[in-house]
Amino acid sequence: MDARFTDEQDEIRRTLRELLGKRCRPEELRAAVDTPAGHDPALWTTLAEQLGLPGLALPETYGGVGCTATELALACEETGRTLAPTPLLATAVLAAPLLLALGTDAQRAELLPRIASGGLTAALAVPGPALATALALTGHDRHGAWAGGGRAGGVQARRAEDGWQLYGQVDQVLDGHSARLLLVAAHTGGFARSRVLLFLVRGDATGLTRARQTALDATRPQGRIQLRYSPAELLGDETVDTLPALARLGDTAAACLAAEAVGAAGRVLERTVEYVGQREQFGRPVGSFQAVKHRLADAYVQVQAARSAAYYAAWAAATEATDRAMATATAAAREETAGAREETVGALALAQALEALRRAAAEGIQLHGGIGFTWEHEAHLYFKRAAGDELLFGPVHRLRAHAADAAHVFEEAGP
Questions:
Q1: Phi, psi at residue 288, to the nearest 5°?
Q2: Coil, helix or strand for 256?
Q3: pLDDT over 90 for what percent of the chain?
Q4: Quick check: pTM over 0.85?
Q5: pLDDT score recorded for residue 266
Q6: Is 50 exceeded by the pLDDT of residue 336?
Q7: What share of the chain is helix, strand, coil (3-state, %, to 5)?
């Protein structure tokens, strides 16, 4: 592994940091999250037109930039620094890779260029608070029990004369209230032969009702969707195995989320160091006190360690995707072993990054003193990002426990 960034990667980071520094300052951030959509469409259009951000990891064949998960994770690190409320996670990290991996040629040709141009936003709708399980971050359900089925809730799919219809409700869908395309995980085939498939639901479909939900992290808008016999299109065909595809997506998602959390942790730590260097107490800067130095030094070490883990996870996810594309049938067993290894790397990197963000945000709130606890200051937004991500993709102890199980850490050695 070459740990150095390429010139292209450095340029992505520099350009994105400059743009977000001008367009996503605290006042713009608060104005964006207070809109019905929860993000600034003009900023998203700029990110798409000037940087090609929605299609960063999509092939050039479909109008993308042709980069890898590494570049996508670096972009997420920069959006994490400012807590930029954009559809990047829902559209480019969660939805687009599934369309690319499972969609038919016609579906890819129709949808991916529109996503790459920024004209189409998408969201992955997983029934119940089970997104982390569906992505194999906190568990590995090979039968899709997380999706409900029968009388256990979730979304049911049934054949209609002109295609498919969906019935059910999904809560906590990232950008689910505003995305123009929904990828809905639904049960089909009856109770005895029930299996989980992904369906495409247009934002203006009949029988679809959507509403934004109040979330702990306002910079990560969520919606509730209700489907009442809504027309849907099967993603791919009925031979597609959805669950392994979702598990593979978890590798990239974990790396991007870890990088995003590291970016946020680094920024809030920078702000705290700057503040304690200016704030005076007893005639000297607060940052000159040894106890404060030690606390910030410990947080800095934790953030840097998490950054290294996030970069490695991004590199591993990109390498795994390349190896999978080149794999042959004779390498199936080797590929499965590699997949388990990368799944472990991503989950551990995400756990370390979320822990570092929580630590840095907590130190920031306390060391800012009275102003750190106010609604007007943005320190609490970083703490809520850490807590909100743990609710959606964690918590940290479950991420680590699943990684340990995947790596067979606690299994007894054979005789």
A1: -85, -10
A2: helix
A3: 73
A4: yes
A5: 97
A6: no
A7: 55, 15, 30
